[in-house]
Amino acid sequence: MDKGKAEARIKDLREKINYHNKQYYVYDNPVISDAEYDKLMRELESLEREFPEFVTPDSPTQRVGGEPLPAFRQVTHRVPMMSLADAFDEGELKDFHRRVTEAVGQDVEYVVELKIDGLAISLTYENGLLITAATRGDGVVGEDVTQNIKTIKSVPLRLDFPEDKKPSIIEVRGEVYLPKEGFRKLNEEREDMELPLFANPRNAAAGSLRQLDPKITASRPLSTFMYALGHVEGVEFTKHIEVLEFYKTCGFRVNPDIVLFKNFNDVMDYCMSWREKRDTLPYEIDGIVIKVNSLEQQRILGFTAKSPRWAIAYKFPAEQKTTVINDIIVRV
Ligand code: NAD
Q1: Ligand 1 centroid to residue 1 C-alpha, Å
Q2: In this structure, which CATH number among 3.40.50.1000, 3.90.1150.10, 3.40.50.720, 3.30.470.30 belongs to the domain 64-331?
Q3: Which residues does UniProt mark as catalytic (predicted)?
């Protein structure tokens, strides 16, 4: 493609992606499938790689999520909430492992987790007490949903600290999601009331949490899995798996299918095994997340503008089924 054509296509793709980001992140109301969205994003990434002179800081390839809704009080995250780089096949997974081992120059252990299809949340506890809950927003500033989060039973309001680990401040991060059964019932009720249906459990979870009236959130069977650490004071961790063990002790829900691997071939086998098994879960997953276990190695690897270099999301191939989103029929 010549330079002029590439520039025009990049502009066109950015406009399209920005529009879909707003529908998805701000209004919880996507109009295309995730697979179609991922295709647009991949095309933009590849053109920007070929023509780096057109990369701008406001390109959707450089930014996380969407603007926070002004109706909510805004919360600035102490540590940014980032996105994840994607891998769509075994070749891209192997490239990730190669980049990681080259950068750290040592053996690497990986923690492998299900990628829960909900929305990210950051919970700040001061001396064990829940103070603030915020959505990811644009990664730097999120929405204050503290009152809504307090209606979710799996979120502890006060933490059970072990004797040897009592952080004065801790930002506990994870996913709020709606189980498949809750999603089915919610859409049935909405159909009876002639209200627009939610496109999928992810958007239903986001729409249920980002409510100005916490009573509405309380009426939805939302649940949580916690899987990441933001800012922490008063405690040192050296491994990601240690953080997850600590979360369990504190009273959080941590996904039972998280596994620690020393060998990358086992990581890949585990990813592939979930392609078939994913439908057996009572909640939706859209992939598998692979994270470097050592926090020191994570520090060496660092971040791009948008995502950590020490983690990757293996995305499952799109399922061939037909879905109706806002009266538009799409193949996903
Ligand atoms: P992402 O969803 O691919 O990955 C990051 C997110 O994964 C985190 O914010 C977190 O919420 C989630 N996650 C779930 N389990 C996790 C775990 N165990 N560890 C860490 N994170 C975990 O990235 P994104 O930037 O949030 O969104 C991009 C994706 O959203 C696209 O690939 C597309 O699928 C979808 N999207 C769709 C549309 C649309 O119009 N259909 C628009 C925008 C985005």
Answers
A1: 30
A2: 3.30.470.30
A3: 115
